[in-house]
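Researcher: Excuse me, tokens okay?
***
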Amino acid sequence: MKKFILFILVVCCSSQLYAQNRDYKKYDKAIKYYQNNEFEKSKKTLVKMIEKNSAWKKPFLLLSNIYLKESDYYKSAKTLLNIYDLENPDDILGIEQIANNFYFNGFYSEALYYYNTSCKLDSIYCDSKLKSFIDNCNFSIGAVSSPVDFEPVNLGEKINTNMSEIGPAITSDNSMLVFTRRVEYEGKEPQEDFYYSLNVDDKWQEAISFPSPLNTNDNEGALSFSNNQTFLIYTACNRSGGFGSCDLYYGINDLNNLNFFNLGGKVNSRYWDSQACFSSDRRYIYFVSNRPGGYGGTDIWITEILKDGFSEAFNAGPVINTSKDEMSPFLHPDNLSLYFSSKGHVGMGDFDLFLSTRESVGDQWRSVRNLGYPINNHKSQNSLVVSSDGKTAFYNSSDNGFGSDDIFCFELPENIQANEVKDLELDIILSKIGEEIVLENVHFLNNSFILNNDSLSELNSLAEYLIKTDIRVVIEGHTDSNGDEYSNQVLSERRAKSVYDYLLKVGVSPDQLLYEGYGYSRPIADNSNEKGRALNRRTSFVILE
């Protein structure tokens, strides 16, 4: 009996001593130091507490967190390993935390070691929770060891300020850059507005704020042009008459007559709809939504532009979308290269930039490619657009700028470049429906409908564009006013048919082609002089709706 009483006294005394060694007053003082960013004082306090009681976990956790704040990830991990056993399955979440601390700060080899350690403790948990992190670590280790060329250039103080500039977009002819600026003035609520800069002699001019009603006292974001610059589309949130938290709006691109309209219930939903872009063939809008029916998180969706509005939105599919978030789609003017941001494809952590391509507009999007390190890193990468040359990319970054986010440009590595948009393709992209496009280099033998050999290069370019798209065109023949009306009419028809026949011969579908001769009934210049008559003797085409 005496032995039992003695045992109880020893246990009680030990418990009281252990409780007494938990100095909550000092711990509270360490927390206050931490909250006031007085890290050295907090660390000294915590180290003394740990020397007196190494069994109390809280001081270790706080000390580890301070090392994280100081970017000393190795000391942070070493501190946690005082309370987590690498061979104890009960400590798997703590070991995973060590791995996460390394992973989210770009230390992939160290992260992989601790993820694999966790997997040895619980293979089922590993398969369900950690596999994607391990895949990302393996990819990232390889990517860092084989970096791609990447030399970003800040666009300068005419565009960037001490405020935040994000979400760049560029017109197909590279003449205008638009972006969103987070406007912050003392005493006023921050808000986001649109700005644009014009390219004059390859130099970006002072950015100018878009006028009302595009900019308002509320937030606007993610503006994009149609490739012919006729329309623009953007996101606005919590507006009267909206369908959800954020909706898509579109309007005519005319600074003197800005009117905007909600895209309607077939596109917008009661959820979040944002970040839209046009396809260059004027047929589709790609955008981001978190509506049900996707693959998880935010997905990229598509709507077809119809004569009387828009089709029901449909998902871009599982090649593009994952169970996690996809954002910021940009369909290059070549209509074959889709750049976007994703958390779900194998990458380097958080959002990475990816590219998917297709052979023609009728094909499915192919497996995505990560743009590589250091374009991507452990931070979030988003909102990349590419000019019509296929290689000059624009994006926003918080590294080495005038403010929290600036607009930068850089040249894409060759293997992730889009196709360069040729002059003829650019003329097509920039044209309006029904607008005549002259084939400047298509010529015939004098008073004949036989094509000169030097005409074939431009016709091959036109054929290539028609084959990879499904637009329909009318080939038009025109003459000057010399000669009689009937002869000119016949000649213009035969010349148009010669072009029509050649395009069929090189693979263009007959469903895409019509031809028509107009003689001299549609002059574009004065027929009274040779210069004007030369302009009127032309072969052209018009895009059909």
Observations:
- The two ends are 101 Å apart (CA to CA).
- Residues 52 and 206 are 63 Å apart (CA to CA).
- Residues 153-416 form a domain with the Neuraminidase fold (CATH 2.120.10.30).
